[in-house]
Amino acid sequence: MDAQGRGRADNVDPADQWVLNPDTGEYELRLTPSAAQSAVPGPRRPSADRTGGTAPGGQKTREAAPAETVPAPRRRRAAPAEEEPPPGRRGRRPEKKKSKTKKVLMWTSGAMALVVVGVGTTVYLVYKHLEGNVTTTDVGSAAKNGFSKDEAFNILIIGTDKRTGKGNEGYGDAGSVGHADTNVLLHVSKDRTNATALSIPRDLIVDIPDCPTKQPDGSTKVIPGTSNERFNTSLGQDGRDPGCTMRTVKEITGVQPDHFMMADFNAVKTLTTAVGGVDVCLKHAVDDSKSHLKLPAGKSTVEGEQALAFVRTRHAWGNQGDLDRIKVQQQFLSSLMRQMASGDTLTDPTKLYELADAATKALTVDTGIGKVSTLKDVALELKKVPTKNITFLTVPVRDNPADGVVHKTVIVDPVIAPPVFDAIANDVSFTEVKKKQKADKSAAAARLKGTQSEASEVRVRVFNGGAAAGAAGETVNWLQLSVGVLKSENAANAPGEIPKTTLEYAPDQAPQARKLAALMGLSGAALKPGKSFTNSQGLPTMTLTLGKDFKGAGVPLTPPTKAPDVEQKSTADKVECAS
Q1: Vertex 326: Cα angle to 201 and 395 (nearest 5)
Q2: Strand 135-137 and strand 363-366: pairing?
Q3: N or C terminus: which one in the chain shows less Cβ crowding within 10 Å?
């Protein structure tokens, strides 16, 4: 029987069995023999004094508590209506409640702290894991040192044909050092309203410039440039790194890539698997023995090996060449962008982590964007661009006449391509330009206002640095006779050729530079702060060098306000079927 039951059985109030121990300050349960709790008077039991004694039978007794401290238990009797609760009931029970509350708070606080520490540790470990995935290549001055979220930016995306990774032994050329097989120059506008993805054919005949490359020992080795080479040899051949491909793109287009991202065969397989597959559409069924692609007509979802086969196949599309394969790759990339931007991907933590893990493992990037935090910034800036304003197009080309009858390579179309390159270089959208046109016209009018009346103050010498023969003399005549720049002189040919026209001036000549730029229609990019030249009269003179972009005296070189119409361009929001 428990204490409460025993007390009630002996007609003793159980609360009276909890008494204060003066030595510990705690209430303790004290049970006394039933005989001592009896209501019938009887002989008093012998008890030891404070020093102890001997009980009958020679057994030693324990020290008893003082009588005034441990009261004798009382008989249960009817409690008066206004009777106060017994001391035990008032003291012990609230103490137990308080103790339980403290424990609950302690456990709750501890659990919360554990969760916070656990989450923080997990995030840190995930971050360090992703950081360890990233592979970087130092391409020196070919790429920027960092990434700016406030400027337009250009990223060169390179897909190599190198057989790295498990299961890729049968793809590409067996002895390939990793050429630039698939190439996309991605331009993202400053205001993030639009982007342009320009595909560069691998069989485009180009001049590859000299290329400084970083060696394993920290030294720099310059790979000599070559002429009339396929674009894909700008990577891998003769030890060329992605920086050489970036420099070649600049040579072709005049657009400077800020960074590069390079992927191999595994990237396609892992990224498409991470997003749960990419939707594709075919106008006809495909069974290609070379790429091992086998798909029915209509819509399909591909991932892994099948996705790789889809982007690699050439013989299933059009004239079975690289240009038709590029169209299909653009359709594939559009679908991948839509899939990556979908709510299913961005709101699923597991899928999002798998995508981040796959992306960081699959890509090699320059050191300027080699940190996970920087790659995250790039991704967030890309995410701001609506898919309907992401334009896919290909460098305008024509068949290479040097090939003869069988056309294997192509060259840049000298008429159609330059306006495309200019639009990208000057951050002009291929989708929405109306608002920007209006702003540009207003700005041009403001620059021209009041400049001609002050043209006589401008002093400039003119070099020909790549324009048509006689361009410097024609320009001087136009400046003096048409717009009143009388203090201009012909300086003949420049020491070397340059792609873009420049106007160099000393800091105190900035007002003159702005006036001349307005008169000639030069863009802000053409203005080059530097030094002045002292002319024959001992006066400081600006230097105008006419580059390859110079179109003739009096023809404005201001940035285009409207992108040219280009055949076969598409946008990322449209679903198209490969044919």
Answers
A1: 45
A2: parallel
A3: N
Contact 502, 512 (CB under 8 A): no
| Per-residue model confidence as pLDDT tens digits over 406-441 | 778 999 998 899 889 989 998 999 996 444 444 444
Q: How far is CA 326 from CA 237, 329, 362, 531, 569, in A?
A: 22, 5, 21, 46, 12
| Cα separation of the two ends of the chain | 90
Task: State how far Cα 162 lies from the chain centre.
Answer: 25
Alpha-helical segments (H) within 384-509: 417-425, 434-448, 471-482
Q: Go through the chain and tell me how many residues it has.
A: 579
Q: Three-state SS for 230?
A: strand
Over the Cα atoms of the chain, what is R_g? 42
**CA–CA gap between residue 15 and residue 472 (Å, rounded):** 114
Question: Helix-strand-coil percent breakdown of the chain, rounded to 5?
Answer: 40, 20, 40
Integer Cα distance of 48 and 62 in angstroms: 8
Question: How far, in whole angstroms, is CA 476 from its chain's centroid?
Answer: 49
Helix (H, G, I), strand (E, B) or coil at 460: strand
Q: Which residue has the tokens 């016209």?
A: 441
With 0.85 as the threshold, say if the pTM is over it. Answer: no
**Beta strands 211-214 and 220-223, pairing class:** antiparallel
Kind of pairing between the strands at 390-394 and 195-199: parallel
C-alpha distance from residue 276 to each of 166, 266, 336, 376, 548 (Å): 20, 16, 10, 21, 48
pLDDT at 403 > cutoff 60: yes
- CA distance linking residue 49 with residue 60, whole number of Å: 12
The strand pair at 487-493 and 459-464 is best described as: parallel
Give the residues across from 393 on adjacent strands.
198
Could you count the other beta carbons within 10 Å of the beta carbon of residue 377? 16
Q: Residue 371: exposed, middle, or buried by beta-carbon count in 10 A (0-12, 13-18, 19+)?
A: middle
**Spatial distance between the Cα atoms of 356 and 540, rounded to a whole number of angstroms:** 57
